[in-house]
Design a protein that fits this description.
Blueprint (H helix, E strand, L loop, with lengths): L9 H11 L3 E6 L5 H15 L5 E5 L2 H10 L5 E5 H9 L3 H12 L28 E2 L9 E2 L1 H14 L1 H10 L2 E5 L6 H10 L8 E6 L24 E6 L1 E2 L4 H10 L7 E2 L8 E2 L2 E2 L3 E7 L4 H12 L8 E5 L2 H8 L2 H8 L2 H18 L13 H8 L9 H7 L1 H10 L4 H4 L7 H4 L18 H17 L3 H7 L9 H15 L6 H10 L7 H9 L1 H7 L4 H11 L5 E3 L8 E8 L9 H6 L4 H15 L2 E10 L3 H11 L4 E3 L2
Parallel strand pairs: 1-7, 1-8, 2-3, 2-6, 4-5, 6-7, 9-10, 13-17, 13-18, 14-15, 14-16, 16-17
Antiparallel strand pairs: 11-12
Length: 642
């Protein structure tokens, strides 16, 4: 049944008016404006008014895909991530895929597409692979396997070189909507607005998002180059209401925004920021001290403002996982994955060797039979004080032990050891549905540990049916007595005490709770150095990491918080040595334009997560910063903790 347009949001009516004229559109809305609600209304209405037309909706995450799919369940709607949409529309054109991929491999100016030891790739190179070009989690160009970044580049080139492909997709989908457009790659935008424009077929492209929330560097950020009221490729429609934030947070957010969009509180009495028919005033405070003690900050908020950091609706936002690791209890795990001194030395050697080759410097040669120590001695890597890094490593018993593990191994083998912190702290949910989906960077060790802890958590939380579905012991249950044995096994595993990660892995295997599969066994063999470091850490520390990544602690990174909302939000302004952000520049409005813009947007996202109270903490700010902060927050809201 077609809903009367008169009952729809004003912005949705404007969108539908643009659709009637076959105009592409952009719905721009600030934080808490209800952009997803508008998107859902638009989808429902265009399906109702165009019952024979298909609609494609793309968004950034699998979680968002599921949310939209649940809210609009219709056979004419296809919801997916952008990567999955592109692949589904190009994967059958294998001949064209091979041509494009080989042309990229033979492009000497494109360093992303290379096959080692191959000077020129013949055009029948991939004909020997029956599977053709494949899209996977990982990249093996020698076998025609491309990953996420390569898919975007190849798809862009395909739609540019083969306009017929644009015709086919436009014929298939009368409407294409892209949520969180600001996080979308510029190359993807080019497909829909540049390459599609070359096709005479008709369809409508709609974008939903907020340029001020473009906090990822690989996103396009804004569509200003395409916007025009009458003559532009896109008609922009602004949604100025704010349903989430109390008035004081809205006022602050409007001062932070740099694009001219000013939000006003929603008049909807059912909006989260309304109380008894009135917009909530809320609280905003800026705290600073000279000692950097976050515990004192939390105590001050607890004593003076009634905060409760044990409440699930209270979040502490830090810039990086590294800044959180110590306070959240997984410092040793983070140090292994993000601060391994031996792998760091190896990386410096490879970097130095690459520079030597680039500058035609051939004074240092790495031979096939060189050990790691041979190569370390050849390159003599020093720190800023001109002290040999090898000597520093050997002076510390812990790092000396690590160095001894690798010093006699062939450098050719050591150079293959890579430890990536994303393999530890990637926050993709690892449930049964998501385990096999593209996108998770967790390594097989961390996935295995997550599986063990999921068993423990489900049982402890009395989610017995879910526990029976995930435990490997389920295949052994044939009699009532088997469930009794399972109960004894899982309960003996729950109390981990001071047991190491390796001990828990082996016990979970022996008790049939979580078996050592081929992936885990191969990981132990192929990643001996990393596994030897991790296995000695207490499993209880991994449990702290699990709680953090599952969102069950007060901690979050400032990037991860996007899209979420909480009653109480504490923003810690500490760049953690990350030069991409500068909070002093944020308030003094100085520094490079790129860093300033990036910092402003992240700060905006963090501040607008609050539904009630917002606190911002800055350690040891300059007098100049305090002056600007008082202008922004109000003098009465700026307080020093002594």
């Amino acid at each position: 049944m077609v809903e009367a347009r008169s009952s729809l949001e004003p912005e949705v009516k404007e969108i539908l008016a643009a659709v009637d004229k076959n105009r592409n559109f952009l719905l721009s809305g600030g934080a808490g404006s209800g952009k997803t609600y508008s998107l859902v209304q638009v989808i429902r209405q265009v399906i109702a008014e165009n019952p024979t037309s298909k609609v494609a909706c793309m968004t950034y995450t699998n979680a968002a895909v599921n949310e939209i799919r649940d809210r609009v369940n219709h056979e004419n709607l296809s919801v997916s991530t952008i990567h999955d949409f592109l692949w589904s529309n190009i994967k059958h054109f294998q001949k064209e895929l091979k041509i494009i991929l080989i042309s990229l491999l033979n492009d000497t100016e494109n360093s992303r597409f290379t096959i080692v030891d191959e000077q020129s790739i013949p055009y029948d190179y991939y004909d020997k692979f029956e599977e053709g070009i494949q899209y996977k989690e990982y990249l093996i160009l020698q076998k025609g396997i491309i990953s996420h970044d390569e898919l975007i580049i190849i798809a862009n080139r395909l739609f540019e070189v083969y306009p017929k492909l644009c015709d086919l997709v436009k014929d298939k989908y009368r409407f294409i909507f892209i949520d969180e457009y600001q996080d979308t790659s510029k190359l993807v935008i080019e497909i829909f607005l540049n390459h599609f424009a070359a096709s005479k077929k008709k369809n409508v492209i709609g974008f939903f998002g907020d340029a001020m929330q473009s906090i990822y560097d690989d996103g396009i950020g804004n569509l200003n180059a395409y916007i025009g009221e009458e003559d532009g490729q896109i008609k922009e429609i602004k949604k100025t209401q704010n349903r989430r934030n109390p008035q004081k947070v809205i006022n602050l957010a409007n001062l932070i925004r740099t694009d001219g969009l000013k939000q006003v509180a929603s008049l909807d009495v059912k909006a989260p920021n309304m109380l008894n028919g009135q917009i909530k005033d809320g609280n905003v405070v800026f705290l600073y001290s000279k000692d950097g003690n976050i515990s004192n900050v939390k105590q001050s908020l607890t004593d003076s403002y009634g905060w409760n950091f044990r409440n699930k609706d209270t979040k502490e936002l830090n810039l990086t996982h590294n800044l959180i690791a110590g306070r959240a209890g997984f410092r040793r795990l983070m140090d292994v994955y993000d601060n391994d001194p031996i792998i760091g030395l190896k990386s410096e050697i490879l970097k130095k060797n690459k520079e030597n080759l680039k500058n035609n410097h051939t004074g240092i040669t790495i031979n096939q039979d060189d050990t790691f120590e041979d190569v370390v001695n050849k390159f003599q890597i020093k720190n800023r004080s001109r002290v040999l890094k090898k000597d520093l490593l050997l002076q510390n018993p812990d790092t000396a032990k690590l160095y001894d593990q690798l010093k006699d191994k062939l450098f050719a083998d050591v150079r293959k050891i890579y430890i990536n912190k994303d393999a530890l702290i990637d926050d993709k949910k690892q449930n049964e549905i998501d385990l096999n989906r593209k996108g998770s960077k967790r390594d097989n060790l961390i996935k295995h540990l997550f599986k063990i802890q999921s068993n423990i958590s489900l049982y402890k939380n009395k989610q017995y049916n879910e526990f029976l579905r995930v435990t490997d012991y389920r295949d052994k249950i044939t009699r009532i007595n088997d469930k009794t044995i399972l109960k004894e096994n899982i309960e003996s595993l729950i109390d981990v005490g001071e047991k190491t990660i390796e001990t828990v892995i082996l016990e979970a295997h022996e008790k049939g709770i979580c078996l050592l599969d081929d992936k885990m066994s191969k990981f132990i063999v192929n990643n001996e150095y990393l596994y030897d470091r991790i296995k000695e850490i207490e499993f209880s520390e991994f449990q702290k990491l699990y709680e953090y990544l599952e969102g069950k602690t007060p901690f979050s990174t400032q990037h991860k918080i996007k899209g979420a909302e909480f009653d109480y939000v504490l923003v810690i302004l500490d760049n953690g040595g990350w030069n991409s952000y500068n909070f002093e520049d944020l308030f003094l409005k100085k520094g490079t334009e790129t860093v300033l813009s990036r910092t402003q947007k992240l700060f905006y996202v963090c501040c607008t997560r609050s539904k009630d109270s917002l606190a911002v903490y800055y350690n040891n700010p300059s007098k100049e910063v305090i002056v600007k902060v008082k202008e922004l927050f109000g003098e009465e809201n700026v307080k020093e903790i002594k």
